TrEMBL record, chain A:
Classification of source organism: Eukaryota, Fungi, Dikarya, Ascomycota, Saccharomycotina
Main location as per UniProt: mitochondrion
Record family assignment: Belongs to the mitochondrion-specific ribosomal protein mL46 family.
Keywords attached to this entry: Mitochondrion, Ribonucleoprotein, Ribosomal protein, Transit peptide
Protein name stated in the entry: Large ribosomal subunit protein mL46
Gene3D superfamilies recorded: Nucleoside Triphosphate Pyrophosphohydrolase (3.90.79.10)
Domain Large ribosomal subunit protein mL46 N-terminal: 22-149
InterPro entries for the chain: Ribosomal_mL46 (IPR040008), Ribosomal_mL46_N (IPR021757), Ribosomal_mL46_NUDIX (IPR033650)
Organism annotation: Scheffersomyces spartinae
From TrEMBL, chain B:
Compartments where located: Mitochondrion
PANTHER family per record: 54S RIBOSOMAL PROTEIN L28, MITOCHONDRIAL (PTHR39150), LARGE RIBOSOMAL SUBUNIT PROTEIN ML40 (PTHR39150:SF1)
Similarity annotation: Belongs to the mitochondrion-specific ribosomal protein mL40 family.
Name of the protein this chain belongs to: Large ribosomal subunit protein mL40
Alphabetically ordered keywords of this record: Mitochondrion, Ribonucleoprotein, Ribosomal protein, Transit peptide
GO-annotated biological processes: mitochondrial translation
Top-rank lineage group of the source organism: Eukaryota
Claim: Transmembrane helix is one of the keywords in the record: no
From TrEMBL, chain C:
Protein name from the UniProt record: Large ribosomal subunit protein mL38
Compartments it resides in: Mitochondrion
Keywords: Mitochondrion
A UniProt-annotated Pfam family: PBP
Amino acid sequence: MKGRILGRISLRAYSTDLKPVVSSTLLISRTPIISEELTAFESQYYKYNNELWKRLMWTFPKWYYYKDGTISEQMFKELNPAPVFNNPNVDFPNGRPEIRQGRDRRFKQELKLPKTYSTEVERADETAAESSDNLSRKIVPNSRITKADETKDLTSLERKLARTLYLVISLDGNKWSLPNFEMSREEKVPLHKLAETGFQSIGGETVNYYNVSNTPCHLHHSENKKEYFIKSHILAGKFAPVDNSTKFMWLAKEELQEYLEGAYYEDVKHLFNDV
Amino acid sequence: MLSSSIKSAVLPVLRTFVRFKSKADVSPSTQRVIGQMSALSASKKQPKVIRLSNEDLIKHKSIVNAWNLYRRRKVSRQRDQLNKQYQSIVDAMEDLKQSEPELYVWANTKQTNKKFPLQLRVPTDYPPSQPWVYNVKK
Amino acid sequence: MWRKTASKYSLRAIHSTSKCLTTGEKKVWSELSSRSSSLSIKNAKIKKSLFEGGKPETIVNIERKAAYYSPVDIDKTFQLAYDELARVSGDKYALVDELKSQLTSETDTEIKAQLEKKLNKALVDAEIYNPEVLYNFEYDSELIDASQPVYRKLLHDKWKSHDLMVLMQRLEQLHVIPDTLPTLEPKVEVKVKFPHNTKSEFSSWIVPGTVLPAFAVCKPPTIEITLFDETAVTDDSNSSSLYTVVLVNPDEPDLSTNSFTTKLHYGLSNVPLSHTDNQIDSGKLLTDGEEFTFSSYIPILPEKNAQIQRACLWVFRQNEPLTIKSCERESFNIREFAAIHNLTPVGAHVWRQTFDRSVNAIREQYHLPRGRVFHRVRRTDPYMG
């Protein structure tokens, strides 16, 4: 069956009086790995609301978590000195403090907790092998920008972690398109099977993927050809083309606009995710 | 004589418990319960009510207005896109029904034993140390 | 952020005004050549504290001002929110321009009316989120300009949220509906006050249903009729902007039938009203009073031991100019009156009166005969009715 499915644009020209050629286009995407990038307004709004929320928060019940006279209480006290107390003999030009339970009720309560790691170790070497096993080490999140972003490697699956990427291939290194596989006229197979086997034949052997449905999600009419779109997600692995002349890229929606043909992109752009 | 004995029996019950005072009198277990209850109670722990000036009220209202407009635009854009995608599916299936009935039946059969892949990640704020898994077990 | 010394403050002021000029050019709401000045804050200091932050200018007390703290980051967030709102408003103003150009080329009256409706909505949408408009509406009632669609919309919403509900409750509970007219579909806000009073209790706007003493109502009231629907906006030449105002008392005792009749106490007709000129006050009555009045004002003066009496003020929209010479006060049939003159009730108001010490003096003032005194008469057999 695999032999009959053509992994590339067929060289054999079909006579035009026949029915249009049915083909299956694989819309394989890499879903976002990290959360969406926020706009300036979004992040500012969240920050503002967060501040309001902190301002309206109850006072931290210190006595419950730090028992009187213990060393941890002493450490906490050192880190969080008591606010200026409301001395009736002193004039406060910017408003009298309102101290309740060791907190100025007019503002949010800012707490500093004792560090679980020592600063010397932090400075010495963070990349030491043993430090990754140390549960009390300082938590430093990984960067949202990866090496692939810096080197602008369009073939990497580690680029643009916050976006959905789609696979585009090129047979001649010039014209880019979504991977498309034609159905043979003799033997018919389901559209999603056609896309799957076709994808494996051009280099998808090393890919773990998930076909969303056997139902096509779009139909694109072109000259004597019908392209049915099958949606799929890449879960793991790497697309490695069988033929060395086949080029491929993982692109986000705006980049697809540059590489795909204008009219074609306009027809299919609603299938691509904005995020 | 009798009254004093009653007094000594009743007084510990009637005593009002105050945090940090009369520490020596209560047992450690009672003290612990008092501490737990005071951690849960709102007494003195609530912040001052926010009273905004006229300008700040207008500012706050405008911020909320802008946010609502922003969200509305975003959600309606997403809804439009989803509607278009749904229409695409309907169009494709209608066409398939007319031109390729056999493929239509295959495309329309329910995939019963299909399972959602557990490897699909939920987006997090920061990437894992290895953002992508390259080795695939066959 | 907040400088106390005068020299520093003035330096900052100069710097900030120059900044304001440069950033203001691209924004829709700071452009005032084609927009009414009522759409911006008049007080420059308050405007500055709204857009640039710092301690609020609306707090006058110096100590309270110093002790005031704005929420963290409110100014920065407000700036971004303002840009977002202004951008949306810019789109709406583009729509306004398009609709205006369509209106000038359109000739069909029906399509024109539709376009005007759309234009009005677009004008509201373009300004409804403007922080300066919101500020003026909330805190600077002098700047509320009813000729602007956005202020009319805000006034309408405010009226619907409270005053309209109070009015309808009083009209129904006091049975003004259906004792005078079968029902009311309120389209205008009717406010009544008696400005000749010196006590604020009686000189301010009357809440519907209040019981007023006779001295408080001894002179004709000032009536404010706020129009909300856009179709009513016309100039004086158009008859659809003419209104009729009638004050009736449905509780006048009628001994002959052992019942009550309706008495007419005040009648005005052909009163032209518009969005901005919406008051019937003593000044207007002095100049055009004779033209409008078909039945001069006589206060409701309940007689002793008569029941509490309702003063029902009805506002009608006229379909054409009327010629009412005079009207019989006694046994006034308001339903017939409305039907004969083809009047549409659009608003109402009600207050109540009862006998008090000032009634007799006011009767003399209006050259009325001394009022009757009613007594309770015990029926012969209470069970027979």
